């Protein structure tokens, strides 16, 4: 168990290092892949594809952590034996969500088009990723048989949310990648520190 905890913490630390290194490397000049994607979708935010992307990000965005927080409160109120679990999950959710709020002013990267607030990492993608991460933990502890399905849905939602932000021209590809790295890093470290990873039933 101790070895697995160490591996989770190490993985989280490596993800956070990757997040910082990526942020520093793209801070001043976007890499070719960023430029190519931005050029591909330039101006789409005013067209039907952009309108669809905008609608999607109204759902796959900052509203999700608040919705999940409300769900955790309801679960804690209805099933008192899960109160401690819900509190720990809420802490992980808040810490992961804070990554974009804290990091944006530190990197202060310009967006592909004129838009308020810095670009790295994407707050929308952080919101989707941290919600998915915590939902996976919730299922792992309460509905283990749904964990794989939940992981698939969480990954798909994060990818769709990232693509929509790129289509809208408000984020570079590396902004979205950085979001995933940040959430993964903070999520693994905080969940391990709170005893959510690994589960007691997990193989050693």
From TrEMBL:
Kindly give the Pfam families that the UniProt entry links to this protein: PAP2
Keywords, sorted A to Z: Membrane, Transmembrane, Transmembrane helix
Occurrences of domain Phosphatidic acid phosphatase type 2/haloperoxidase (ranges): 87-191
Q: Answer yes or no on keyword Transmembrane.
A: yes
Show the stretches that span the lipid bilayer.
7-26, 55-77, 84-103, 123-142, 149-173, 179-197
Q: Is Transmembrane a UniProt keyword of this protein?
A: yes
> What SUPFAM superfamilies does its record include?
Acid phosphatase/Vanadium-dependent haloperoxidase
Q: Which InterPro entries match?
A: PAP2/HPO, PAP2/HPO_sf
What is the name listed in the Swiss-Prot or TrEMBL entry for this protein? Answer: Phosphatidic acid phosphatase type 2/haloperoxidase domain-containing protein
From which organism does this entry originate? Amycolatopsis oliviviridis
